[in-house]
Amino acid sequence: MRKHQLDLFSLIAGGLFTVIAVLYLVAALNHQSVNGRIVLPVTFIVLGVGGLVGAVAAMARRSRPDEPEQDDTF
Questions:
Q1: What b/e string do you get for 10-30 counting C-beta neighbours within 10 Å, with b at 16 or more?
Q2: Which of 7, 17, 32, 43 could form a disulfide with 27 if both were Cys (CB 3.0 to 4.6 A apart)?
Q3: What is the DSSP letter of 37?
């Protein structure tokens, strides 16, 4: 089985949405509120940075020469 390449943007976006969900859950359990005026811009900033990191990583991956395939048969 061939390994797939790591998609940094998807990893960062998934982690961000998980953190936001946990933040809202903890706030609801403690009868607190989350300020959406802070959460929404921070979400866009993190997604933008994640997109840049993903694009730079993809460019670096493309410029690197391909590694020779290894035959895993016995």
A1: eebbeeeeeebeeeeeeeeee
A2: 32
A3: H
**Is this prediction's pTM over 0.85?**
no
Separation between Cα atoms, residue 50 and residue 20, nearest integer Å: 16
Q: Determine the Cα–Cα distance for residues 24 and 38; give it in Å rounded to an integer.
A: 13
- Cα separations in angstroms, 35 against 9, 22, 49: 25, 14, 22
DSSP 64: S
Give CA–CA dist 39/26, Å, rounded: 15
- Give residue 43's Cα distance to chain centre: 12
Tens of pLDDT, residue by residue over 25-69, are 999 999 999 888 999 999 999 999 988 988 888 888 888 766 656
